[in-house]
Amino acid sequence: MAPVVGSKGHVLVWEPTQFYKPEAKTAFEAFEAKNPNVSIVSTPFEAPSLPKNSADFVMLNLNYHDVYWESAKYGIPRMEPQTFLKAVYAAMKPGAVIGVIDHVANPNNDTRATVDKLHRIDPNVIEADFTKAGFKLVGTRNMLANPADDHSLLVFDPKIRGKTDRALFKFRKPR
Length: 175
Hints:
The chain has helices spanning 2-5, 22-34, 81-91, 111-118, 123-132, and strands spanning 11-16, 38-43, 55-61, 92-103, 136-141, 166-172. By secondary structure, it is of the alpha/beta class. The protein folds into two domains: 1-43, no CATH class; 45-172, Vaccinia Virus protein VP39 (Rossmann fold), CATH 3.40.50.150. Strand 1, helix 2 and strand 2 form a beta-alpha-beta unit.
């Protein structure tokens, strides 16, 4: 994104503190040194804190499902998706766009269990969550679809890693 926004734009990366370990900090500092239009903010996963009314565009790539995930191993407590979306919504300017890409799960009644087991999410859940948070659906695309993925494997399984069936959404914060 840094080359796309150019020298007049700015990219703000949000990294949960649970994952912003020394190796990640070192890697980001090296990246930041080469890209002066990039900075980072790190807050707890369960309590994102972003500059209000600042973003023209937000990208959530293969990670929205994680708002349904909890992990003692990684220090991720249970969180509510609407809390996360409220913070993202507040960070966006009126009319701003958010792109969401995520691994597709089959429709089911237990999103948290599916995310815990497979790190996938039913696209209908994504649409419902964002709509409930006040975003307007602008469009979807199937260009990242993979009909060979039957949604039964963990996304990190070598048989499917990097080749999962993916949903792609474009939402807008109303003006």
